[in-house]
Amino acid sequence: xxxxxxxxxxxxxxxxxxxxxxxxxxxxxxxxxxxxxxxxxxxxxxxxxxxxxxxxxxxxxxxxxxxxxxxxxxxxxxxxxxxxxxxxxxxxxxxxxxxxxxxxxxxxxxxxxxxxxxxxxxxxxxxxxxxxxxxxxxxxxxxxxxxxxxxxxxxxxxxxxxxxxxxxxxxxxxxxxxxxxxxxxxxxxxxxxxxxxxxxxxxxxxxxxxxxxxxxxxxxxxxxxxxxxxxxxxxxxxxxxxxxxxxxxxxxxxxxxxxxxxxxxxxxxxxxx
Length: 273
Known about the structure:
The protein is of the alpha+beta class.
């Protein structure tokens, strides 16, 4: 979330951290959560009890999990996304036409958040096999292990994803600088752009050709191409295609995929109120 320098409430921060920890773990007890978050067991227990009373977590024996209440919250948030209804159908058609993984994303707090995903084609089938062959040394550190496919609700850096670059290319330089000041240019693979000057050159190239490219910058062996969704001069989000590098080659991108992406983006934009 954005940090405006205002007053913060520690108890709320702890509660949010507990919800995040349970989201990542599924189920966990007081001791595990206290160790993971660096708080006393009594602090964690009191916060969990409060969240339980409010209906946001549920106790099962000695462990806690997120309550089913979050399903309803997530669905309501999702249905309020501009153009999401049209995006579902448009991405189905995009994947059917191209055979690649199709994604609809938007910028939030300087990160790319994936709002919808369609995976049903040869591109999807190749990704797990491609992942098995990735050498660890393609990553900057062995600790990084990004998911093969983005999941709905997951986020990613803007500077090393096609959707993110497409969105950055539509922003003024001051706003882009603010994103980079906040999040930096972390290296995900050896191909990741970590120099601001180089990134701005790429954004200018993106603006000229009309689509953004990412080549093994986020996950080794994979490439993505994306365009923005703009409705009445409002930057709504971006649509992108993701697949193995042997399928997303330059000629196919410029001759086939670019046009398909533009059609998809236009359909979504036309449904935005």
